[in-house]
Design brief:
heterotrimer; A mainly alpha; B alpha+beta; C mainly alpha; A: mainly alpha; Cytochrome C Oxidase, Chain A; Four Helix Bundle (Hemerythrin (Met), subunit A); 3 domains; two-stranded antiparallel ribbon; 25 helices; 4 strands; 2% strand; C: mainly alpha; 0% strand
């Protein structure tokens, strides 16, 4: 184990036992979980992560029951167990629940729970954001699922293709889907931001980029994928909901719209989504395989290559869900090629795991059983995936049960089996008790037999001609027996989950506590003490290896005795370390906020906006949005950018760290940057819509409709760019401590922004663009309104900074607020510039 | 290329004792899967809607591709799973890191790249053949998907067209050009035995070329979820000799035969009196509705209600009286108010429209 | 061989350089083909110039990827230390990042060639 000369070493001498006890008492005091009803105000990653995980599993069970209902209906031809309408609601909800309410949230839940432990951090950088995300998820998920019990659930499929969902379905089902899920997607993005920043900035000192656990690499990649994959769907949701609510014809071909745009936006999200739910499970495998092979992972670099490569390539596959939409062969060929290429990194990962098992001394356990069972079934799904990526074969297989079989092999084998294995692996870490090896083995065999009996025949059913999403089928197809077998298999599979559930829930009161680090793993999460303490690690270690528990001598003792960083909480604050991105050099001792109920209020009112909007109670939704904004501002005001009582803090081992930093060193700056990348992605998706419409129309703007002109958009653009300049000036003046000039700049920036927004609206208003008449005015209006809304947010941010300064919560030295707001305005400037170029400039080119 | 340091922890013995029982995992899985696979292969590919029982050039090409891929996939799966089972059985000291390097680079990177390149070239080189339009002068048919039936328009050489519904007949051994449209939501036009599917999108026209090679009766189906009765949206496809096809097409162009007996005459008057003609066309009568299937030669069709029902009098009566029982959400109103006699007469009239 | 000083501030962006080139190439190919077939060519028309454009993009992309990959190859192999690059040293961190960049370059090159193959075999807008 080589390291740099002068690399920090743990303290030679442990503090005296008396001192250690005092340190522990103070740490516990700072990190203790609230009790009684206040327990629900907890924001610590271990509580929120646990709630998140349990909630995700509840939704999983709900989705599973829906699947069984479908299999009962399809067990026999011309069955009338379910009506067509009910069946359509159920298959829509099954897909929706499994993808949006289980697969993505479970990854985020497990990561919130485990990532800080793996990184030796006390908590994630924004604990209240995780809590907010969780409550949003719970409210939104319950709302969406609840609709099924009122016979009001969406029934357009989890892919919601218009015009079926825009003009041909009665009721509020599609609105529930669009608004309810947008709400949850926002929560998913929030969690992704947090996890990315966690991996990049909250590692323990010394954990260079070549040493981080593979799980963290995967989380980084998946987080980035969410930032770029979810916004296009949100953009699509906006367009479809606006069409439903206000009759703007984005997907109505009679008025120039095109349903294919939805398919593009949906699948630009939808295909990366498959990898978003699959890669975290590979990450779990990458943690379990080396542990049970008793050897470091083989080909760490190759696995990183595979994770990053898959992340990229997965964005080049979306059209393979659209091979049969009559696109030109060349487009199909390009996407078919990329879909083949993505199999390469996937293969590399699998072979790295196999090679690790080859060189290791394999220790058998249920965890490994699930990993290997998952691998064997996932490979079948991967191979059929390569088949359907071959466009000619897809012409036949697309939208048949072949694809149903394929995707369930991928998702159950690739995603769920490793998660179940992961539960067996990490259950002792969370509860200090083992799950039963025997029950685990029974559950495994039931599941793997059930999986194959259910889904292998479906490949055949599909090729014998049974399309997907049929509520019944005719005997004439000759698939009766295959369907019956599938239905029987589904109950075997379900019984496996029942055994697993029993194992998790059964009382283990009489069983002894496990010993610490039961699997003899090498990564930091296994530092957790038995029973677990709320502080994460007793002291934050200096890491020199990929498997520090195995490689660094006396590591656990040194951590436990507080011989590393931050062994104490002298001031009674919750503190964790922020380090640099590449080499994890400490740069800040970050104070994170503790329990609160403000996040609940923020989540309830945010939920109110979406839920009331579903029922078109626009006024109430408006009031709810004001309350949500107030709650969020109150949360930011009280919980962020605290001015510390002292500049620096001794974090032990001879290092002192600033408590307050701003700019690119600060986690808040990173969060803003990443969030705005996602925001820009949504905006670019809308711009993509503009150019998409341009390609399908002979003339765009069409004959008889003038564009928004040049004068107003350019005027609006200039005013908003001036506002941007004034924001930069305000930041500068604040740093110079020129209070008067600072307030002047802020006020001027706000006024310019208001005037600029007004001018932007005047463009399409003055030229009489009617958004319901044709898709051209509609897309122009959407782009303008998007920009104006962002200007509104920018104005609120500027006023917030002025108020912070006035309240002495922001000063020349402690300027994180205005720094982050300036970053927002940089993106705002880009948004405005693109808007003006497109709506005012592009009509001259086309 | 791979160099590893040994774990420095002293205890390497396993948490779980290595039991003899667990040695059977892999073998069990292998046997199980082999048995299942074999049982698939020995069962037939027959079926009116089977993609693996090709009756056309395109379906045959794709089926061939499929069997190659299945063969390759089975071999790859056996190798990988075999390797995993082997990894569990062997002792770590028996091989060195060069072996793992071989597997990661060779098995993980090089082999997939070669296999995928071959496959990609195979697939891409097929595509121009599959996507090429039919030559000038081929039979051209426009099919318009509607919730939940098919409007079929045969284009005749002289430039006119004849409008039919829910049944397509094709001459064998001749390419045929389909133009596909939708009147409402997205549908997908798929005749598995003849070739791949192409979606029908409102506001767009898509194309599909098929090359039937074997006479017979096949079934086409809507493959894109289109709401209420998506599961009941099919059509019959009859591939016939050129002569028989010509005769049929000529007969379809003719106006409807007038009612041939008393019952049928009564049926015709029921048809006209109850407003059926507002939606349906029967050429040669006053019925000229455009929103529902053309019934001019209804009696010549093989099945009823977009293939959801057999062509029998009872089924037809049931359909007219309670269409929603067969097809949920269907736009045809219920005619349960008709008397039994009226229904029988109506069915007799329609059956007579050969 | 001593590391040049700027290595101390090596960036994570090196990892995404080659895949980004692939992504740009991919989007350029797709956009060119789609716009050509939608706006320039008749239905079923010849791809013509669009194919040449894809050829040019591909050459440019491969050159870019080769530069990144070569850089990675040279830097990861200094002092001829083999992987796994798991020491807590600046050298190993540099080697690791450059090694990953090299591997990603190879993958990106393969993916780029795959995408370009589409234009080799398909010559019309059918």
């Amino acid at each position: 184990m080589r390291k740099e000369p002068g690399d920090p070493e743990p303290l030679e001498e442990a503090p005296s036992l008396e001192v250690q006890r005092q340190q522990e008492a103070r740490l516990i005091e700072a990190w203790k979980t609230p009790t009684g009803w206040r327990y629900w105000s907890a924001v610590n990653n271990s509580e929120v992560g646990l709630w998140y995980t349990l909630t995700a599993f509840c939704f999983f069970l709900f989705g599973g029951v829906l699947a069984l209902l479908m299999r009962i209906q399809l067990a026999a031809p011309d069955n009338d167990f379910l009506t067509a309408d009910r069946y359509h609601q159920i298959f829509t909800m099954h897909g929706t629940v499994m993808m949006f309410l289980f697969a993505v949230p479970i990854f985020e839940a497990v990561s919130i729970l485990l990532l800080p432990q793996m990184l030796g951090a006390r908590d994630l950088p924004f604990p209240r954001l995780s809590a907010y995300g969780f409550w949003c998820y719970l409210i939104g998920g319950t709302f969406v699922c609840g609709s099924l019990f009122f016979d009001a659930a969406p029934k357009g499929g989890w892919f919601m293709y218009p015009p079926l969902t825009s003009s041909y379905q009665e009721g509020i089902g599609p609105d529930i889907w669009l608004l309810g899920l947008s709400f949850i997607e926002v929560a998913s993005i929030a969690a992704a931001v947090e996890l990315i920043v966690g991996v990049l900035k909250c590692r323990p000192p010394g954990m260079r980029i070549n040493l981080i656990p593979l799980y963290a690499w995967y989380i980084l990649v998946v987080g980035a994928m969410i930032i770029f994959a979810f916004p296009p769907l949100i953009a699509g949701d906006i367009l479809l909901e606006v069409e439903r609510a206000f009759d703007w014809p984005f997907f109505d071909p009679k008025r120039g719209g095109d349903p294919l745009l939805w398919q593009h936006l949906f699948w630009i999200f939808g295909h990366p989504e498959v990898y978003i739910v699959f890669l975290p499970s590979v990450a779990l495998m990458a943690m379990m395989v080396p542990t049970f092979a008793r050897t470091p992972i083989v080909g760490y670099g190759w696995v990183v290559l595979a994770a990053v490569g898959t992340g990229f390539l997965s964005f080049g596959l979306w059209v393979h869900h659209m091979f049969t939409t009559g696109l030109p062969g060349i487009s199909i060929g390009i996407f078919s090629a990329a879909s083949q290429a993505v199999a390469i990194p996937t293969g590399i990962q699998m072979f790295c795991f196999l090679a690790t098992l080859l060189v290791g001394r394999v220790v058998r356990s249920v965890c490994l059983l699930f990993v290997l069972g998952g691998l064997a079934t996932f490979i079948i799904g991967g191979l059929t995936g390569v088949m359907v990526a071959m466009a000619p074969f897809d012409f036949q297989a697309h939208d048949t049960f072949f694809v149903v079989g394929h995707l369930h092999y991928v998702l159950i084998g690739g995603t769920i089996f490793p998660i179940v294995g992961g539960v067996y692996y990490y259950y002792p870490l969370i509860t200090a008790k083992y799950l039963s090896e025997k029950l685990g083995r029974i559950a495994f065999w039931l599941m793997i037999v059930g999986l194959n009996v259910t889904f292998l025949p479906m490949h055949w059913t599909g090729l014998l001609g049974l399309p997907r999403r049929v509520y019944t089928f005719s005997s004439e197809l000759g698939v009766d027996h295959w369907n019956l077998i599938s239905s029987i298999g589904s109950f075997i599979l379900a019984s496996g989950f029942v055994v697993f559930l029993y194992d998790v829930l059964r009382s283990k009161r009489n069983e002894p506590l496990i010993k610490r680090n039961p699997w003899q793993a090498g990564t930091l999460e296994w530092l957790a003490q038995i029973p677990d303490k709320p502080w994460g690690c007793r002291s934050i270690p200096e890491v020199d290896s990929r498997y520090p528990i195995n490689d660094q001598p006396n590591f656990m003792r040194d951590v436990d005795e507080g011989r590393f960083y931050l062994p104490d909480a002298e001031e009674g604050f919750r503190e964790t370390l922020v380090t640099s991105v590449i080499d994890a050099k400490p740069i800040q001792c970050l104070r994170v906020p503790g329990p609160t109920f403000i996040t609940h209020l923020a989540a309830i009112f945010t939920g109110g906006v979406f839920i009331l909007g579903t029922y078109h109670h626009w006024w109430l939704a408006g009031i709810s949005s004001v309350l949500a904004l107030a709650a969020i501002l109150c949360w930011l005001w009280t919980g962020t950018a605290w001015i510390p009582e002292k500049e620096e803090k001794d974090i032990s081992l001879g290092l002192t760290m600033p408590i307050y930093v701003s700019g690119p060193n600060a986690v808040g700056w990173w969060a803003m940057f990443i969030t705005m990348l996602g925001d820009m992605t949504a905006y670019v998706s809308l711009l993509f819509g503009y150019f998409f419409y341009w390609t399908i129309h002979e003339d765009f703007p069409p004959e008889g409709i003038t564009g928004p002109g040049v004068f107003w958009p350019v005027l609006g653009g200039v005013l908003l760019l001036a506002s941007w300049g004034l924001t930069i000036a305000a930041q500068y003046q604040n740093r110079k401590d020129h209070a008067g000039k600072f307030y002047g700049c802020v006020i001027a920036a706000v006024l310019y922004a208001i005037a600029g927004s007004f001018a932007l609206i005047m463009g399409p208003w003055q030229t009489g663009l009617d958004p319901t008449s044709h898709v051209y005015p509609a897309i122009v209006w959407v782009l303008v309104l998007w920009t104006v809304c962002h200007a509104g947010v920018g104005i609120i941010m500027l006023l917030y900074c002025a108020a912070r300064r006035a309240a002495k919560k922001m000063t020349a030295r402690y300027d994180a607020d205005i720094t982050n707001v300036t970053l927002y305005w940089h993106f705002m400037a880009l948004t405005v510039a693109l808007l003006v170029i497109v709506i005012a400039g592009f009509p001259f080119v086309s | 290329m791979f160099r590893f340091h040994a774990f420095s922890t002293s205890s390497l013995h396993g948490f779980c004792p290595r039991s003899a029982r667990t040695g059977r995992w892999g073998r069990n899985a292998l046997w199980f899967t082999c048995l299942l696979t074999i049982s698939f292969l020995i069962t037939g590919c027959e079926g009116i809607q089977s993609a693996l029982n090709p009756a056309g050039r395109d379906a045959a090409l794709i089926a061939q591709l499929y069997w190659w891929m299945v063969g390759g996939a089975v071999i790859i799966w056996l190798i990988v799973v075999g390797l995993a089972v082997y990894a569990l059985q062997i002792n770590a000291t028996e091989h060195d890191y060069n072996v793992t390097r071989f597997w990661v680079i060779g098995g993980g990177a090089v082999a997939p790249t070669i296999i995928l390149t071959v496959l990609l070239v195979y697939g891409l080189s097929m595509m121009p053949t599959l996507l090429e339009p039919a030559p000038e002068g081929s039979q051209t048919i426009t099919v318009i998907g509607k919730q939940w039936w098919w409007k079929v328009r045969y284009h005749l050489p002289e430039g006119q067209a004849v409008e039919l519904a829910n049944e397509i007949r094709l001459p064998v051994d001749e390419p045929v050009q389909f133009y596909l449209e939708s009147a409402d939501v997205i549908h997908s036009f798929w005749i598995p035995s003849l070739g791949g599917k192409v979606d029908m999108l409102p506001g767009r026209q898509t194309r599909l070329t098929l090359h039937p090679q074997r006479t017979g009766i096949y079934r086409g189906v809507c493959a894109e979820y289109c709401g209420g009765s998506h599961a009941k949206m099919s059509f019959e496809v009859v591939v016939m000799e050129r002569d028989a096809f010509d005769t049929w097409l000529e007969q379809q162009q003719a106006p409807a035969k007038s009612a041939s007996n008393e019952l049928a005459e009564r049926g015709e008057s029921v048809f006209l009196a109850h407003g059926c003609g507002a939606c349906h066309t029967i050429r040669g009568t006053k019925a000229n509705g455009k929103i529902a299937p053309d019934l001019t030669h209804y009696g010549s069709r093989l099945r009823l209600a977009a293939s959801a029902l057999p062509q029998t009098r009872d089924a037809l009566k049931e359909w007219i009286a309670h269409p929603k029982q067969t097809k949920p959400g269907v736009h045809m109103p219920s005619f349960a108010l008709l008397s039994e006699d009226d229904l029988t007469a109506l069915a007799a009239y329609l059956e007579g429209l050969q | 061989m001593k590391l040049p000083p700027h290595e101390q501030t090596q960036s994570l962006w090196i990892l995404v350089a080659s895949p980004t080139i692939w992504a740009v190439h991919f989007l350029a190919c797709y956009t060119t083909a789609a716009v050509w077939c939608a706006k320039m060519a008749e239905t079923g028309g010849d791809l013509g110039a669009a194919r040449w454009a894809i050829g040019v993009y591909t050459a440019a992309a491969l050159i870019g990827i080769a530069i990144v990959g070569w850089r990675g190859f040279v830097r990861q192999s200094f002092e001829q230390v083999p992987p796994p690059f798991d020491a807590d040293t600046i050298e190993d961190r540099v080697r690791f990042l450059e090694y990953a960049a090299l591997l990603l370059s190879i993958l990106s090159a393969i993916a780029t060639i795959f995408v370009a193959l589409a234009a080799v075999f398909i010559g019309t807008c059918d």
